[in-house]
Amino acid sequence: MIPNDAPLRLILDGAALVANWRWASATAAAPAGAAVKADGYGLGAHEVSRRLAAAGCRDFFVATWAEADALGALPFGAGLSVLHGVREEDMAAALASTARPVLNTPTMVARWKAEAPGRPCDVMVDTGMNRLGLSLADAMSGLLDGLEIDVLMSHLACADEVDHPLNERQRASFAELSAAVPARRYSLANSAGACLGPDYGFGLIRPGLVLYGGIPHPAAAGHVAQVAGIEAQILQIRDLLAGDTVGYGATFTAVAPARVAILNLGYADGYLRAFAGHGVAWAGERACPLVGRVSMDLTAVDIGTADVGEGDWLTVDYALDRAAQATGLSQYELLTGLGSRYQRLWND
Ligand SMILES: *Cc1c(COP(=O)(O)O)cnc(C)c1O
Fold first, then answer.
1. Which residues contact 249 (CB under 8 A, 6 or more apart)?
2. Model confidence pTM above 0.90
3. Domain limits, the chain
């Protein structure tokens, strides 16, 4: 149970989440599911899926059976797919669950046919990423005959790269596959794939990042709203003299008298040391640059003459595309690293 007096919080915008989901669907001209693996990319899979299901989302994707179990029953009869499929160790959980496995290997196909005959499943086919999935040859060999396939899917490797030739190659392979293998539905695109437009829609898309305010592709810039904002409480304010240093390694030296606020936020909260030299917190309209290194649980910012005191809250800049550029971290890493110490506060 997260105490509601936690000294740091994520402010989460449910309307933005739903608007981003609708934008992805409209852009690909296809119904949109939602990837909610890794606890909804760090924002909280339960609250995310509840809001998206209420908006009409009927297909959710997690990585593992433990995640499926943690999510529990979804409202409105929405379906849940487990992307990593069924290992032998997963079969008991899979048989007890209403979620569908995404079968990735010939062994998984054989296992599902033998141990869950007639039960619906999804299937992943590899069209060029060489991550999970059956080969095209296996998928078209008759191996899948007799399965009740709901979603036949593949995954794009380079959809975030404008005009990468692999996108069209994968799309063409998937079109060929979908003509050859019967399934109830077909799905190719993640967030960046949805940005490639209706040719990549195939009847169902599986966005993750874009739902949570990430910009997966230049086409999304200006259309996607930020969903998560960080607010951290000031634990202490200190006055520095010229020559004073701040933090581990004494990497910051005040050149003139300064005021710094020590915020309850650190790399254990996903605010990694890569923000040193780049991070900014806001005291109202005033930008307060991060000074020194980020500690495990604490960060110092220069508040200048801002009218704030101990116990006040600062908004920490966490615009995903900007933060990714500044730190070299991916937008995915920025979201999924957020950790468990935030109070997650939805604004609706
Ligand atoms: C994670 C994942 C997605 C969502 O990807 P985003 O890039 O976050 O949109 C879709 N499909 C599969 C198979 C995934 O693993």
1. 292, 293
2. yes
3. 14-214, 228-318
